[in-house]
Amino acid sequence: MRVAMIMRTVRNQPRTTREDLVNDLKTAGTIVTKKTIGNTLRREGLKSCSACKVPLLKKAHIHVRLKFANEHLNDSEDNWVKVLWSDETKMELFGINSTRRVWRRRNAAYDPKNTIPTVKHGGGYIMLWGCFSAKGTGQLYHIKGTMDGAMYRQILGENLLPSARALKMGRGWVFQHDNDPKHTAKATKEWVKKKHIKVLEWPSQSPDLNPIENLWRELKVRVAKRQPRNLNDLEKICKEEWDKIPPEMCVNLVANYKKRLTSL
Fold first, then answer.
1. What superfamily would CATH give domain 59-262?
2. From CA 49, how far away is CA 52, in angstroms rounded?
3. N or C: at which end does the chain have fewer Cβ atoms within 10 angstroms?
4. Closest C-alpha to 176, from 219, 142, 139, 209
5. How far apart are CA 201 and CA 178, in angstroms?
């Protein structure tokens, strides 16, 4: 079997399927099965994985992301334990989005050839705001209507501070949110300052650097298994499953944050 040909094809095009390789080899005069192809790739150190979804980046984004990673690469785990991570997400009624699989080596998840750029889109869904720390999940809030700066500050007042207290964040905790205009508006910055909340400086276009993305994925998998029937059902199930996410998962995400920066 032409192992060199297989490896060259997969190296250049990681999204190549086993069926594609079977057809390529057949054209070249070699008959093999998809199972044989899979076994060969695994022997060569590759495995089939879901392609990681990452933002479509400009050069300026790449620069500030690398700057963030380099500045924080040697931070101790205790620094990340103090962070209360937050984000908004879209929860679709009819399950999680389809995934694409790629053949890659163990530490190559974020190689551009092994990822899928994502863009936001519409559909039957609800929007949620949530937060978590190494101590567990905080409150989950259903965003009703179009969120503006005033609504965002209300969400923080009603959910962020109670979450920090419930999670026993103590003094000196740090708030993480991205650079959405509602988050960086002058009024929001003044509100945060008035509440004496320290904010983590965050690089634009970096959802993959926020470990809450892993929790959103976990939540979507859990919710999809329960098959909500309507949007009210979806909200109820989301809140139930969010509260069921084990604290151990939150601890591990924070403990492994240096690996995320190293991958970047």
1. Ribonuclease H-like superfamily/Ribonuclease H (3.30.420.10)
2. 9
3. N
4. 209
5. 9
Tokens of 92: 């679709």
Chunked into runs of 10 residues, the chain (264 residues) has average pLDDT values of 83 88 85 89 87 70 82 87 97 67 80 63 78 98 94 96 96 95 95 96 89 96 92 96 97 92 84
DSSP string for 61-112: HHHHHHHHHHHHTT--HHHHHTEEEEEEEEEETT-SPP--EEEE-TT-TTSG
| Alpha-carbon gap, residue 117 to 51, rounded angstroms | 10
Domain parsing of the chain, residue ranges: 1-44, 59-262
**Number of neighbours of residue 152 by Cβ within 10 angstroms:** 22
Rounded Cα distance, 109 and 107, in Å: 6
In angstroms, the Cα distances linking 164 to 132, 138, 241, 244 are 9, 8, 20, 18
Residue 119: predicted pLDDT: 36
pLDDT of residue 108: 83
Which residue, chain included where needed, has tokens 């609504």? 151
pLDDT of residue 117: 53
Tokens standing for 191?
A: 């509100």
Predicted structure pTM score: 0.71
Fill in the amino acid letter for 253.
L
Beta bridge partner(s), residue 142: 128
Question: What pLDDT is recorded for position 95?
Answer: 64
3-class DSSP state of 2: coil
Distance CA 114, CA 244 (A): 31
